[in-house]
Amino acid sequence: MIKKCLFPAAGYGTRFLPATKSMPKEMMPIVNKPLIEYGVDEAIQAGINAMCIVTGRGKYSLMDHFDKNYELEHQIRGTNKEALLEDIRATIYAASFTYIRQKEMCGLGHAILTGQELVGDDAFSVVLADDLCINQEQGVLAQMVTLYKQFRCSIVAVEEVPENETHKYGVISGQEIKHDLFRVDNMVEKPELGTAPSNLAIIGRYILTPDIFEILEHTVPGKNGEIQITDALLKQAKDGCVLAHKFKGKRFDCGSVEGFIEATNYCYENIYLTSDAPNQSHTTVKY
Ligand code: UTP
């Protein structure tokens, strides 16, 4: 089934400069937990245990985060602070972590193509960690894995956005084949205002079948000279089938300052403060 999750995390995160000058955007914390850890936990909850991370220059802290820190652990052993490391320890033991560097930042499609060596020949999932998704019953990735088992084709997660925001997203149109599930017939990356085919915007969760790699290899750079995953998915949709799943749950665009603040407030009130763990260390939640 879906056993691997690819995390494209090589971007510069320019909207958060200067914070992201030397710190990866994916390591920015929502309360006390870095964005990427929320994504990894969502993948684990979906039954996925191999995390494949596409990194870039200066992103060593991503690797360090999913590794032991013997000095620190020795220092706090036996104190009540040990509980603060429980979640990340469990995450580290529940999954494997492999890394590959994207040599040039040529867009999300290029980052996914870079990950081919790590994900291999099977269908895989993709999480953009700066989209934080939370759903108490079943995480967004788990919802998509369930759908993949039935339909066996690429699936994108979509959300309705206001019309004046469609230009920030890849936008799909398609026929609703069952409740909240669409068969994609068109897909446009960041359409000009007023030209979007619908208000269903693609967010940072995908399940991709491995033929996407060959399509990406032949995809010519689109907007801003970047290889767009949307262009490759549109070809897949035209040649075969791509589904769009209007997911259940909340999504925060933590790549923008406003979304990041909103996510922080939400997680502080609904996860951190309601935690029953000692000194509120746990941010355990279903995604
Ligand atoms: P974004 O465009 O949202 O991220 O890419 P960014 O470029 O880092 O942010 P800004 O716009 O400059 O603030 C979506 C995801 O794709 C990854 C990013 O790390 C992010 O997780 N990405 C993007 C890559 O890994 N490589 C790329 O070449 C581009």
UniProtKB/TrEMBL annotation:
It catalyses: alpha-D-glucose 1-phosphate + UTP + H(+) = UDP-alpha-D-glucose + diphosphate. GO terms for biological process: UDP-alpha-D-glucose metabolic process. Keywords: Nucleotidyltransferase, Transferase. Residues 9-266 form the Nucleotidyl transferase domain. InterPro entries: GalU_uridylyltTrfase_bac/arc, NTP_transferase_dom, Nucleotide-diphossugar_trans. Pfam families: NTP_transferase (PF00483). The keyword Transcription does not apply. GO terms for molecular function: UTP:glucose-1-phosphate uridylyltransferase activity. Its EC number is 2.7.7.9. May play a role in stationary phase survival. Belongs to the UDPGP type 2 family. This is UTP--glucose-1-phosphate uridylyltransferase. The lineage of its organism: Bacteria, Pseudomonadati, Pseudomonadota, Gammaproteobacteria, Vibrionales.
